[in-house]
Hints:
single chain, mainly alpha, Globin-like, 6 helices
Amino acid sequence: MAEPKDSFGRCxxxxxxxxRFYEIFLASSPEIKPRFAHTDFAKQKDLLQRGxxxxxxxxxxxxxxxxxxxxxxxxxxRRGGINIPPNLYRFWIESLIKTxxxxxxxxxxxxxxAWRHVIQKGVDYITAKY
Length: 130
Ligand code: HEM
């Protein structure tokens, strides 16, 4: 079975992976870029890498990962400062899949659907707190 954590290892091993994700994500919709107008990307890239790891671990049943997604769900909710409407997550998902397809030399329909399963589960959990 295709394992996102193996694919993740093949991708994050490459220094430009997260840079490329943000390049694609910020360009994916006019609604995205302005939200990052004041963002320190040196920090943000680190946070995203950890967030992705937590999604993979959440799928694996980790309680620690679940608590981290709780916190991200709060910060991205109406109550949190970031306030991201759930309909914007589709840009995040499609940008991530596109980035993985560029970086993972073993990318295949199986790898893609395994990723989509993991990401959707994490996104559903986060957006349920909106
Ligand atoms: C499920 C996918 C996502 C994950 C795992 C994620 C993760 C994170 C994390 C870890 C932070 C740092 C602050 C914190 O820890 O709460 C953050 C900040 C942020 N996220 Fe997300 N995020 C996701 C989706 C999105 C989407 C769809 C948007 C829409 C534009 C977004 C916009 C932002 C913004 C604007 C910030 C604040 C940046 C700043 O400090 O200036 N995020 N995100």
